[in-house]
Amino acid sequence: MYDIKNINIKQFLAEQGILPKQERTGYGMYLSPFRSETAPSFKVDYSKNLWYDFGSGEGGSIIDLVMKLDGCTINEAIAKLENGSNFSFHLSEPIESVHSTLQIVSVKPLENHHLINYLQSKRSINIDIAREYCQEIHYTTNGKPFFAIGFQSDAGGWELRNEYFKGSTSPKSPTTIGNNSATCLLFEGFIDMLSYLTLKNAIHPTVDMAVLNSVHNLHRAEEFLKQHQTIHCFLDNDESGKRAFAAVEKLGRETIDQSPFYRNHKDMNEYLVMLQQKQQQMPKPKIKMR
User: What are the Zinc finger CHC2-type domain coordinates in residue numbering (predicted)?
Assistant: First the structure.
């Protein structure tokens, strides 16, 4: 095990196509492989050959890294490293992570100006709509305090987002919103749902909605989806979104793919952000002076 722990983490990550965004003396800063982010929060100490994720408060050796990336046991991680196996994780996609060391401290109305600024400036979300469906969550990870936008699942878990962090707490499940409608709108994540409602300027739509909180939760949403005659799918424009749509079609309901509506964008939120940017760039009409 000693030799395995000495496998160079920097080299291992490079072999998976992950390169540092910032090089410092003795260490490198990476975009975390565990979530989607724009500012690097994942540190690799080159001299100690250890990693640390500031977003989740987790870290350790290369064995710990493979265990977390591949969702495997310590013995499986060691075997993979010994054999130089191909790894099954897909680093090009954000990994939905449930943090066992994360503890919720408080749940309150969404008021934090950093979180509101993130939703407005980075995500173009209407704050009144966000406040209707989201909460402000204060939590600790390994004793360190953090805060995030929280969206609760039917099972009581929380989807957590801020500008630098994407994660969740267990139990992981979809979120369903019923309005006794024969029509259901299906979204992968709550940011996409908020984006749709922002586009429609609707806080309380008359149709039902389901948010998967991960395409891996689709089977948990099937019973709710089967209660509807028509399902409108606002899924991501990628392979996982296509597979999820095909699975929904098999439920035998009228299934409508809405992704062509934002075909040149990854998802509904990216489309919303583009629209707002275009609107901001439009020249303002000149006021004629009499």
Answer: 31-82
